[in-house]
Amino acid sequence: MSHIRKQNEYEKTPAFYFFRWLGGEKDAFVGNMEMHPQKEYVEEEATIEERMRDRQQAMTEVYDRAHNKELIFFNKLYKALSVIFCIAIAAVLIYAISYLPSVGEAEKPTNNIVSETYIKDGYKDTGAVNVVTAMILSYRGFDTFGETTVLFIATCCVTIMLMVDKDKIRENKDSNDRGFEPRNDAILQTVASLLVPMVFLFGIYSILNGSMSPGGGFSGGAMIGAGMILYVAAFGFDKMERFFNENIFKIVRVVALSCYGCIILYYILTGAYGMECLLPQGEAGEILSGSVTACTIYALYALFRRGGL
Amino acid sequence: MELIRNFPCLSIFMAMLSAIISSALKGNGARRLNTFVVTAVGVMSACVLYLTCTTGESYVYKMGHFPAPIGNEIRFGSLEAGMALFFCVIMLFSLNGGRKKIQIEIDPGKENLYYIMVDLLLSSLLALVYTNDLFTAYVFVEINTIAACGLIMIMESGRAIEAATRYMIMSLLGSGLFLIGLCMLYDMTGHLLMSYIQISVREIAESGTYMIPLLVTIALIVVGLAIKSALFPFHAWLPDAYGYSTVSSAAMLSSLVSKGYIFLLIKIIYRVIGFDIFVNSKIINVLFVFGLAGMIMGSMSAIRENDIRRMISYSSVAQIGYIYMGFGLGTTVGMVASVFHILSHAATKSLLFVSGVGLTDVSGEKTQFIELTGAAYRNVAAGLAFTVGSLSMVGIPLFSGFISKLLFSQAAVQSNIKMLPTLIALAVSTVLNAIYFMKTVIRIYTPIESKYPSVSIKKNRLYAFTLLCFVMLNVALGMCSQPITDWITQGLSVFA
User: Fold this and answer.
1) Residues A253, A217: one domain?
2) Measured between alpha carbons, how far is B449 from B444 in angstroms, rounded to an integer?
3) B52-111: pLDDT as tens digits
4) In angstroms, what separates the C-alpha of B352 from chain A's closest C-alpha?
5) Which residues of B touch A118 (CB under 8 A)?
6) Number of domains in chain B
7) Would you tell me which residues 149-188 of chain A have a C-beta closer than 8 angstroms to some C-beta of chain B?
8) Is residue B335 part of a domain?
9) Which residues in chain A have Cβ-Cβ distances shorter than 8 Å to B161?
10) Domain extent for B286
């Protein structure tokens, strides 16, 4: 038995909202979300003229294109030589590689005692189920610490380029475009509140499970970093700063990296004197490098977006 | 004695950990930590040098729990330890000499980042010097490249960023070639540790199975490292990178970064490829020709330059040419001369950069020659030090440059075909050196009524003291050359 609802009762049901939206009577986002049509970029007459004048000046006075025979000759020679050079290098490399042992050959020099030991004794020596993890964290732990440092120094270099001083932000509002971003995007916020916890959980699972899977710590860290980026894109920096700010970033990075360095150093020193290493090097390395990766990825995003954490 | 064997490993880790801690410190704290670390590493290297010189042997140190072909390893003999000590000394002097400029030119919020770069540069240099594993060498080549880029672009001026970009592109090209060479070498030998590769390479050379890939591999590795150390046709990035960075960076880039790569190349020649196989390959003649061309062309470009910083930079191209020319001679004597020239050039070039900045400071921060007229009267210490550096570069006895030129000519006389071109190039290059350095010295000692104020030594004691140390280092290299060449010869003999 169906009955007809009253109009004011009907207006509260989801079906009413749905059909109203379907009929195009009211858009749910109008008024609830900031929406600006993109402005077309119009260049002013004066700047165009200035640009053309500069270019003309550079061409005639600095390079003197019409009369500078050296430059004309150089340009032609450069084009010709670069083509010849690339072809020659490619040819030489292909020629040389054709003499190398082919892939999968049993007699290949790389099928020696080293790779055999990695595959056979990897689990017994290091306790890591995955051969790749055994190699990067135990057999060649020093190299891996070097690689982690590459990540660290790369972030520092990017920081040099992008970090904006707080005084400069105050002087020049344009260098901080935080105020111009759309806020409270309902779709993004809804999806983010569903996805972010799952992304975080899966990232933590990957890090903890690191010694079982290849490169676990790193990929888990990358996942958590991506989750943090999603969170900050949806909810803004103010909410993010409640649990992650510059000081926490510094603490996590310094503590994790220096612990990692100390563990590797301890591992090497005990190895040099033939003593047993008591620390669970694999898992600790995974967790530490994972947390560094997560922070680094988020920090790069924040640096690009607003020139500072 | 047993304890000293840990020092190379400890010094690498100390430099890396200090960089990590510096990222949480303010500028001043990072600077103090850096000074402490460089000094401590220098002391430790001196201990290692003492150990290796007294026993006359080289030591292998296991990096981890697994022995040679499976795990990592570092190795140190007297040459490695001496180089590490020398790099620390030059780094300490360069940083002290340019400390005031760092404080002025670098954004105060980013000063600690500068010292992070310096710490990691030190760690990568130490690792390049001590490593016995080609892949470890590659990892630290990466760190070295990025640190050098950071040192250039910390100025944040347009020219510095452009120079850093150019340096980055060229340097990554070099790293790429080095990596391809490394992969091919691994494919042929199945090892990454230097001593094991050498055994396999010897077998290959005897049986003649992979001769063509071996030749290409040697070429790739040598060219890759030559690009990174600015051998003549690959030097286009150099003048901007040295000319527009802050003075400490310029001094460290010219005397440490490029020398680190050259030392790695020496290590690869002796410990990976084998000196005799390297000499028998044709690549050595290419290096010889490029070296000779660099000696002449670098000086020619320096003569045409109107900017003192860029002039000193172009002079580096010529000096790198000397070093590669010594490799190209293909004799042990030539190699010893090259290693000595690494020391001599590092000591002199950093002196020239640091004293040059003192001269430009009293000329209204301008680097053009016309502004520098009479600058030596306005800053007496910098003027004297610049003169010493110039005399050493030209090759006047008493200073280090003379000894390296003498060693190069002695090495040239012992080789048959290469004697004449070497001696002619040495003579021409010396004359060209004299032209541009003496021109500058005469210019800075021309008395003139200047609009710029002068600076007394008392006001910047640290700067004057640093210059004095540089001059003393230079004179020491020039006066006590015999023990130093003996040490290099002994070090190279335990290398193989």
Assistant:
1) yes
2) 13
3) 988 888 888 888 888 878 888 889 989 999 999 999 999 999 999 888 888 888 888 888
4) 28
5) 70
6) 1
7) 149-150, 152-154, 156-157, 159-161, 163, 165
8) yes
9) 161
10) 282-496
pTM, entire model:
0.89
Return d(Cα B70, Cα A305) in angstroms, integer. Answer: 44
Q: Mind listing the pLDDT tens digit for each residue in A248-288? A: 888 888 888 888 888 888 888 888 887 777 766 566 667 77
Q: Using a CB–CB cutoff of 8 Å, tell me whether B109 touches chain A.
A: yes
Range name among A142-151, B18-27, B450-459 with the lowest pLDDT average: B450-459
Per-residue pLDDT, A71 = 83
CA distance A154 to chain B (A): 7
Number of domains in chain A: 3
Q: Is B107 exposed, middle or buried (0-12, 13-18, 19+ CB in 10 A)?
A: middle
Considering only CB atoms, which chain A residues are within 8 Å of B143? 146, 149-150, 153
Q: Which ranges constitute the DSSP H helices of A23-61? A: 45-57
Which of A247, A245, A248 shows the shortest CA–CA distance to A237? Answer: A245
Mean pLDDT score, A92-115 = 84
Residues of chain B with Cβ-Cβ distance to A159 below 8 Å are 110, 113
Instruction: Report, as an integer, the average pLDDT of B343-350.
Output: 93
CB-CB under 8 Å, B136 with A139: no
A82 touches chain B (CB under 8 A): no
Task: Let me know if residue A209 belongs to a domain.
Answer: yes
The angle, 0 to 180 degrees and rounded to 10, between the axes of the packed helices B134-153 and B111-130 is 150
Token readout for B261 is 């790569």
Nearest chain B alpha carbon to A91? B216
Whether the CA torsion A183, A188, A193, A199 is positive or negative: it is negative
- B contact residues 72-91, partner A, Cβ 8 Å cutoff: 72
Does residue A102 belong to the interface with chain B, where contact is any CB pair within 8 Å?
no
List the domain range (segments joined by +) for residue A86.
45-97
Q: Does A206 lie in the same domain as A64?
A: no
pLDDT surpassing 60 at residue B451: yes
Spatial separation of the C-alpha atoms in residues A16 and B26, rounded to whole Å: 61
- The answer to whether the beta carbons of residues B411 and B404 sit under 8 Å apart is no
The rounded mean pLDDT for chain B is 90
| DSSP assignment of B54-107 | HH---EEEEESSS-TTTSEEEEE-HHHHHHHHHHHHHHHHHHHHTHHHHHHHS-
Give the chain A residue nearest B65 (alpha carbons).
A271
Residue B229 has pLDDT above 70, yes or no: yes
pLDDT score recorded for residue B471: 93
